[in-house]
Amino acid sequence: xxxxxxxxxxxxxxxxxxxxATVGALMHRQYMPAxxxxxxxxxxxxxxxxxxxxxxxxxxxxxxxxxRALGENPPPLDPCCLLARHTHGQAHDVxxxxxHSLATVIAQIEAxxxxxxxxxxxxxxxxx
Length: 128
Hints:
The chain has about 130 residues and is mainly alpha-helical.
């Protein structure tokens, strides 16, 4: 079974190796390869940090869902979902922990469009 942190560890290892390559290139006065290696260090460091944030968010969402399943009412995560953060609150993800979650919105729409039982028309079967 593979570790969920596999990509984070691979990116970190790559950044460390490229850092060593950068230092080696600088010691041999090869500035162009050193600059390219340094750029690679930045890219792989960002990838490792992004993967770390993704794993952390997944754990927070799992803990939040566990508390909800136990009947507790935990506060929404900040941000309520990753889609809301990237769209400045205009759209929300399926796993949104805030009041704008997809399940809450669907329940509100169904409640608005559901006809109460006392106002439903009688069907043809009941008239005979």
